[in-house]
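A common beginner's mistake is to predict each chain separately and then try to dock the pieces by hand. The better habit, illustrated here, is to supply every component at once so that their relative placement is modeled jointly.
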Amino acid sequence: MNILVLLAGVADVRYPLHEIRIDAAGLIEEGGQSRRQLGPFDEGALELALKLRDAREDCRIEVLVLGGSNNDNLLRSVAAFKPDRLRLLDLQPCRPWDARLSAAQIAGLIGAEGTPDLLLIGREFGDLDEGSLPVLLAARLGLPLFALAQYAEWQGEQVRLLRERGIRQQWHSVAGPLLATVTNDRRNKLRHPLMKNVMLAKKMTFDSVTASAAADSDVRLADLAPAREVQRGGQCRLLDGDVPSQARALAGYLRGEEEENAA
Amino acid sequence: MSAPLKTREILALIPLAWGDDALDMTLGAAQRVAADAGLGFAALLLGNAGAEEGARRAAAAGAARICLAAHGGLALDAEPAALALAGADAVRRQPEANQRLLLVPPGADGEELAAHLAAVLDAQPLGRCSALSWTEAGLEAERATWGGRLRLGMTQADGSAVACLRLGKAELSSTAEPPCERLELDTVLPAPLAVEESTSGQRLPPVESARIVVSGGRGVNEQGFALLEELAERLDGSLGGSLPAVDAGMVPVMRQVGVSGKFVSPDIYLAVGISGTPQHLAGISPDTRIVAINKDPAADIFKVASVGVVGDWEQVLPELLRVVER
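With all components supplied together, the output reads:
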């Protein structure tokens, strides 16, 4: 089985955001010290692929890592898991805010190189996607979509994918080429790479591949600004006293008794 | 050159099976965008059940035109891909517009539906928008990016677009009686993916519809989540968790609250061991009162909470359960 994993990376939320602005050409320019790393959905997609390869010798993993800031570190972090092939994905033109264009570019590349048996991608593709790109990519490639997979396993010769919907859990047996989006779950938490592989990855060089499109984006980037602060009640009233009295006050608040008394 | 205003249309496309909240939220977004743009809006209600009530609410929200589109093959739990095919078929039968903004219900399901619709209609997916307006330059959309830390503004001069926008429920005060058309669709729908189903063992109701949400974060372990679940049950509420708690396997992903999880709008959100990152808070309605239990007095959650306890959940939760039991 040939598995293709698409990884985008996200800015590390534990650190202040690096400098990002719109340049004179209307493109996103990232400066300063970018800490782009695999996001939780990227990690889930990669781990599911690794689990499937662990169980079968004829399972092959190819990974494409989206180009952008902090490329090199991101590629090395993925290389430490020893995918069978790893390349940098260069979108030309690069308009990551336009999922339609990006999906068309990536679909063009995959279509030209050959559709994999299983395409795994995080439910959101990077910091500028909210889930549109995987759906559009599946449509462009004409692949069925299994959304929000949480786990994968072999059952005989077939891969089975699991997701939960409400109070139901659903297993799908993959019968042909399919795109699955992966969400975070304890069963697909990314393993730690072996230290020797981390060291080997530091010395590697990587190929890149360009995914282009004839047409440009229909959407112009107009503005990039800090997020608006959401106005909330705030002015927190801290409950004092010992734990039992704090618990009584808290229970009253949760039951709405405090508001009734005030009324 | 941008299209003349008269050929622009706002169309709220709503699967009726998704319930009143989805209906009212989508009508609310259409109402606001239309009012700001000086336009009317139309409502396309998709599905077989509850069409009369849906039409009544759309009329009360001020829809200038209503289309009830039914399809005999659409199940109540139809996949977004099937809904999009039927919905796109219905959209193609609407009066022509040079630039059409399709609004679908906000939330994870709506976002997936929006992307499918964009693919079928070859429209621009604008995604999960925080603001939408229509100016002479075209459609202007704003979206939260980089984990909610930056907002990105985009302009689309031409062509149709599909978006989700969360602005609250519609005001249902209009007494007008707009024209209401009925469509019977016979779109060929894709066979649903074959799945084997079983129950997941979840006892509590969905997190997105509860009046009280009891939620835990990185600071709470498995034993703590068992207490939170018990508390949620006693309060007739539901259980949620932050992304790190889901990653740690403490709570299922369907209960994840935050920018990449569910958006919740309960009366009260009890946040236990949750630091209060912008990514998590983005999943909680600004109208919700947050109650926080955290041992770190400097935790950001106290900046947005109405009531708080600085303390260890291992002491506070068992005591709280004892009191709530009485």
